[in-house]
Amino acid sequence: MSTSHELSLLFLGDSLVEWGDWDRLLPGYRVINRGRAGERVEELAARIPAELAAVPDPDRILIMSGTNNLLMEDPCFPMILKTMLPRVRELCPGTPVILHSMAPMRLDWLAGERIGTANRQLLEVARATGCEFLDLVAPFTDQCPPGGRPCFLDDNIHLSSRGYAVWAEAIRSHLEH
What we know:
- This protein has helices spanning 15-18, 22-25, 41-54, 67-71, 77-91, 112-129, 137-143, 161-176; strands spanning 8-13, 30-35, 60-64, 97-100, 132-134.
- The chain is α/β, with parallel strands linked by helices and 177 residues long.
- The chain has one domain (4-176): Rossmann fold, CATH 3.40.50.
- Strands 2-1-3-4-5 form a five-stranded parallel beta sheet, sandwiched between helices.
């Protein structure tokens, strides 16, 4: 394994992952960004074997997936992750896997309790599969209050530079503790 200042981080997920400027946001880490815009959890699950074969022995695997499922009103995506994560752990034994919560998007047509329900399910999935869990709700709520500097772009789904900074700080804090 690398020293703490050169950990390799394999990011898997959707556009929130893909569009992050992780090299700038997480200096001192070697980031491998395998995010794909528009991707749903089941599509990520299908590419897991190829991704993990292409990136041998990452020090940490960070997964942020489910946003597109949630937006398409597919509440079953945590169960797909529950099936996928043991495969990730089997293909990369000994590598910590960090499952992220959904960011607290503010969409008029998506009831807030759906995000809360999904995040509770994701926490249970992380516990059931031996993964770590990174809750993004608290840092986003603390750092991006209504009326403050926005963490989301105008679509209230994708992150602003401020949102990415908050997320990166949450990751850094999680990795260092």
